[in-house]
Specification:
This protein is an alpha+beta fold. It contains three helices and five strands. It starts with a strand and ends in a 6-residue tail after the last helix. A hairpin with a 7-residue loop joins strand 2 (14-21) and strand 3 (29-36). The chain has helices at 39-48, 65-72, 94-98; strands at 3-8, 14-21, 29-36, 78-82, 92-93. Strands 1-2-3-4-5 form a five-stranded antiparallel beta sheet. The radius of gyration is 13 Å and the shape is globular.
Length: 104
C-alpha cells in the first residue's frame, strides 16, 4: 500500500514523501522525495515522469528532517531510494531510476 506525507516549509513550499512500488516491477518499494511550491505541483512532477496513479491521501508518513535536508540540497529537488535499504543507501536523483542498468 502506498504511503506518504508532506511537510510545509517556512518559505511556503512543501516537501512531499511517497512510498510507491518500484517502477522496475521487482516487488520492492521506493521512497520518493519531491520539493515543490505546493502538494499538487509535487504530485504533478511525479506524474510527468510516468508515475500516473500517484495520490497523497493523508499525512501518515511525512518526510523526516534528514529527508527534507537531502531534497533541499539537491538541485533537481526530486530524489529516491529503495525502502529496504534506508539506513545504508544514499539518495539518488530521478535520472538514475529511469536509466537502464549497465550491462556486464
Amino acid at each position: 500500500m502506498p504511503g506518504g506525507g508532506f511537510s510545509k516549509l517556512p518559505g511556503g513550499s512543501v516537501v512531499v514523501a511517497l512510498s510507491l512500488p518500484n517502477p522496475a516491477g521487482d516487488g520492492t518499494s521506493v521512497r520518493f522525495l519531491v520539493h515543490a511550491a505546493n502538494r499538487a505541483r509535487a504530485l504533478t512532477r511525479l506524474r510527468n515522469l510516468g508515475l500516473r496513479a500517484v495520490y497523497l491521501r493523508g499525512n501518515a508518513e511525512p518526510p523526516t528532517p534528514d529527508e527534507i535536508t537531502a531534497v533541499l540540497h539537491h538541485p533537481d529537488g526530486l530524489l529516491w531510494r529503495t525502502e529496504e535499504s534506508r539506513a545504508q543507501e544514499l539518495w539518488h536523483p530521478i535520472r538514475a531510476l529511469r536509466r537502464p542498468a549497465p550491462q556486464p
